[in-house]
Amino acid sequence: MSEFRYNYLKDTWVIIATERSKRPHDYNVSIYEEPITDISKCPFEYGNEDKTPPEIFAIRPDGSNPNTPGWLTRVFPNRYPALRIENSPISEGYYIFDKKGGFGAHEVIVETPDHFKHIQDFDQQDFINMFITFRERIKSLYNDYRIKYIHIFKNHGKEAGKSLVHSHSQLIALPMIPKQPFTMILQSKKYFLEKERCYTCDEIKLESQLGERVIYENENFISYCSYASLYPFEIKIAPKYHRHDFSTITEDKMKDLADVMRFTVKKLDKTLINPPFNMVLYSAPPYRDDTINKEIFNHINNYFHWHIEILPRITTLAGFELGTDYYINPTPPEEAAKFLREVV
Amino acid sequence: MSEFRYNYLKDTWVIIATERSKRPHDYNVSIYEEPITDISKCPFEYGNEDKTPPEIFAIRPDGSNPNTPGWLTRVFPNRYPALRIENSPISEGYYIFDKKGGFGAHEVIVETPDHFKHIQDFDQQDFINMFITFRERIKSLYNDYRIKYIHIFKNHGKEAGKSLVHSHSQLIALPMIPKQPFTMILQSKKYFLEKERCYTCDEIKLESQLGERVIYENENFISYCSYASLYPFEIKIAPKYHRHDFSTITEDKMKDLADVMRFTVKKLDKTLINPPFNMVLYSAPPYRDDTINKEIFNHINNYFHWHIEILPRITTLAGFELGTDYYINPTPPEEAAKFLREVV
């Protein structure tokens, strides 16, 4: 059973993932799984639904049965989950240390039945299907009060941690709000208490006026390279209207989001020639009866602004970043945005 | 001129390194520099001292002149520094954002004149020379009151960010205490205020008694896989006696440190077959007349415990780690330690 362990000095948690347990020779061979070139062996293909755990959700416009072909997106548990819903959520002491059972969920979201279609080739409807799937999984999982935070991300390219070629995202549902989103919540709250405004609303309004870091915008959404981008060519995509919770998005607004995503990802792909990247969704956790520290999360709907980040992996995080949590970015965001804006 | 920019939501700083400025095609070619196979072209060889900026420090037992052969270790400014001592340390506002001039220092520490000798081949004296060099640079740089923190690290292997093959470490001196060491200081202080004991002293005593996560120890030093290791096969090396500041180390104690380092690095190299890793030194910043937040850093000598971390880069940091600052470690530290302890 996997477990969480608390790193006291660095004030963060690590999942010791025994389900994925690796001995030294597992690392020696290769740190990446082989891409599957024989698509009949790919577990994410039509007809191979029995090669994955049973599906949890799928978009099936033809009304086909679960675990059969006909789906446009398909969600199932990760075969080697970092966390499991069956594990204990109990917190325990161990000498001077703290640990917790590996309770949570770890799901795979296959975004297209097409083995050869990657995110830079997605059309508007592919993005809409992907976002509907994200939304439905978030809404469903937060019904379990033991789940405090849902993290959805995509690893694109092997340098970004992708292990299977067929396009997919992952969802990890956690019994705590992780360190980074927690910091973002506290910082947003600090700004709100001082100014009675949302930080991200202010940032978006300013960037839209200045223009130099903007990549693309339409009525409801904007993509830009933020002023203090930690990674070269880092991109933020956010609604221009204030909303804390991604899962409240309507199909109408989703069209504008899909439009911005499609143009932005294509521009990134052309500018850097198919770069590896991670995509991350930040959305406010629910404010519920069981929320701990109610005084912190009170009014989270006013001060948190959901958004997506695209983090290109074209430099290597090294001893500076790993040891300080500061970053070195060799491309000023305004230059990155200019390249991205101008590429055709 | 490079500059620091503050990322408000993530509460961290990024160095926008214009000296290393990269346009899209710089990333397209390769994210790593080519290893130099013709050693006559390596700027870290005897006779090539004029291919680096002038040296700042060197160990020269033969009394040879600066910038000539004869050295055992040699330190000079990075040719493409992230920070410069000539840059302004001034803090400025920019609309809603905060920035600071790129003041600091960025040095290269060549640890051996031998192009083919890597850290896993270092003998006891090589390690002693390396640590003397670290110590002397730290002592010298902290004489500049504008420098608030010195970060020394080594990138070993290209997946760990190494760009030139010849063995070297880097030193970055900063005008602020970075996020991660600052957290470690605050956490150590919290523990000390509660228990009147040093957290790391307690951890070392416990691990030494339990034994299952210990790799190697002698009279004064210990190496072990810490309970909440963020990376598989992560290793901590620390003095068994309490000391906050690495730069106070005597030559006598350094022998024991070199002994632990040599055995530990060799064991890691054998167990994982020359894995890439980052090595990081954590040492308390000085408590001086100009220290800001004196009430925080008061008694830092009592509560901070200097140590070294070795972070193997055999898994890929992906969308989970980058988006949450939590970690997934697929090898329990007690298993990693067993492999490392038993390898011959």
UniProtKB/TrEMBL annotation, chains A, B:
Membrane-spanning regions, if any? none
Annotated ranges, domain Galactose-1-phosphate uridyl transferase C-terminal: 188-310
Q: Which GO terms describe its biological process?
A: galactose metabolic process
Question: What EC number(s) does this enzyme carry?
Answer: 2.7.7.12
The record, for SUPFAM superfamilies, names:
HIT-like
Question: Ranges for the Galactose-1-phosphate uridyl transferase N-terminal domain?
Answer: 3-178
Q: Which GO terms describe its molecular function?
A: UDP-glucose:hexose-1-phosphate uridylyltransferase activity; zinc ion binding
Q: Please tell me whether the keyword Transferase is annotated for this protein.
A: yes
Q: Which residues form the signal peptide?
A: none
Q: Which UniProt keywords apply?
A: Carbohydrate metabolism, Metal-binding, Nucleotidyltransferase, Transferase, Zinc
Q: Cofactor(s) for this protein?
A: Zn(2+)
Give yes or no: UniProt keyword Transmembrane: no
Give the residues annotated as active site. Answer: 168
Question: NCBIfam families annotated for this entry?
Answer: galT_1
Family under the similarity heading: Belongs to the galactose-1-phosphate uridylyltransferase type 1 family.
- What protein name applies here? Galactose-1-phosphate uridylyltransferase
* Gene that specifies this protein: galT
